Amino acid sequence: MKILYKVDKSDVEKQEKSFAVPFEVPEVTFPGVTAEEISSWRAALATASNILGYVVKEISTSEAKLVDEIAVDTFKKLNDLAPSGNEGLVGVESRLRILEKLLSCNELDSVQIIGIVGMGGIGKTTLADCLYGRMRGQFDGSCFLTNIRENSGRSGLESLLQKLLSTLLNDRDLEIGAPGYAHERFERRLKSKRLLIVLDDVNDEKQIRYLMGHCKWYQGGSRVIITTRDSKLIETIKGRKYVLPKLNDREALKLFSLNAFNGSCPSKEFKSLTNMVLDYAKGHPLALKVLGSDLCERDNLYWEAKLDRLKSISHGDIYEVLETSYEELNFVQRNVFLDIACFFRSEKVDYVRSVLNGHGVDVSSVIEDLIDKCLITLSNNRIEMHDMLQTMGKEISLKAETITISDFRWLSQYGIHSKWYIRLWDSAIS
To answer: Three-class SS of residue 217?
Structure first.
């Protein structure tokens, strides 16, 4: 890329004005250089003048800002030419474009917060990582704090804050002092840079407040990306929310085929079984990847047995990811979640409210909480949840032996006699 600063393109192309001076007496200017070499230099200047780039005759801003704009634009062009690194990450590109648009539109001089929201295993961290890799070169400093939910419990928030500020300010020996005043102490240095921050897997508003501080401590144009399973956290801090959608049918088939058939289309023998897996996973990337890898190069008898087991027992790797969402619920939320998983999936929300409210629970707010935490959804005024979450809920109920005779009498008065209920009942009284 060329940059012509206060220079006419034609002067460079034809070696006129100041560009003509060195060639007037070439044997003096370039002693020992042959005529052929000088001719090649002239040709190179003519070629360079026609390369796409910047021609700056006057600037309305400071030279420093101009250099910054050119650097960012150059990075974007180089990034477009470089390999994306997203091979095997099905559906990522379309979602990245949406996020880039959200991050670049409006309020360019303010600090923007974007929350990527979705259930466990749906790809929030993967998407944030791809976005971070694509955008970090456009900022003066950047930091990606991974797995905050787990790491804050293991090493504490103070350790994470130390890592965040030392990375953003490029100072390994940084001493943050009292954590409550760290951002204020380094406000001048923070404001001297446009920053990109990713807070991954946040599950508590306190984590955001502690690590990020206040927007006033950052330079306008800085961006904060938060991944979470709880959309209410993003609303609380007044950020913009992007609910990460599940993979569509085409994307789901592609991701599953990459893992189950090494990218090939399923053979006729496995088409029906593949459709059963896709119906079970319902566009959930982690499930498609894990199940695809598990079923790869297995015969159809193994597939059939696996699918049969999945009706009542979750896959271990998937279960571990989903179970963390359940563990973070309070007592009442857990009970309502299990009630829905075992008895009320696809029931009308008004009916569920009437049943559970009659049992001494103000369930309306709890249902809203479970929606915010991406554990249930509402569709046509009916409560729905992913098959994997329902299976997990049923497993938890059986392990806890939560069904009692009083539960049976209470539920039976509402006409609940599903096959699953009978199984729970048999387990409870055996």
So the answer is: helix
The DSSP code for 198 is: E
Q: Give how far the C-alpha of residue 157 lies from the chain's centroid of Cα atoms, to the nearest Å.
A: 21
Lookup: tokens for 368:
């809203």
Q: What are the residues facing 377 on neighbouring strands?
A: 384
Long-range pairs for 321-326: beta carbons < 8 A, 24 or more residues apart: 321/120, 321/121, 321/286, 322/119, 322/120, 322/121, 322/388, 322/389, 322/392, 323/392, 324/120, 324/149, 325/119, 325/120, 325/229, 325/373, 325/374, 325/375, 326/375, 326/392, 326/393, 326/396
Question: Rounded to whole angstroms, how far apart are CA atoms 139 and 169?
Answer: 12
Give the CATH fold of the 320-429 domain.
Arc Repressor Mutant, subunit A (1.10.10)
Question: What contacts 111, CB < 8 A, 6 or more positions away?
Answer: 215, 218, 219, 220, 221, 222, 223, 224
Burial of residue 172 (number of CB atoms within 10 Å: 0-12, 13-18, 19+)? exposed
Q: Which of 91, 32, 424 is nearest to 246 (CA)?
A: 91
Q: How far apart are CA 245 and CA 379, in angstroms?
A: 15
pTM recorded for the entire structure:
0.73
Selection from 353, 355, 332 nearest residue 413 by Cα? 355
Taking only the tens place, the pLDDT of each residue in 348-380 is: 999 888 888 765 667 899 999 999 998 999 989
Of 396, 377, 393, nearest in space to 385 by CA: 377
Q: Provide the token pair at 141.
A: 């400093």
Would you say 88 and 258 are in contact if contact means Cβ atoms under 8 Å apart?
Answer: yes
Distances (CA, A) of 111 to 114, 161, 212, 222: 10, 19, 12, 5
Tokens of 255: 């991701």
Tell me the pLDDT tens digit for each residue of 125-170: 999 999 999 898 888 899 999 999 999 988 889 999 999 999 998 8
Q: Which CATH number fits domain 86-243: 3.40.190.10, 3.90.1150.10, 3.90.780.10, 3.40.50.300?
A: 3.40.50.300
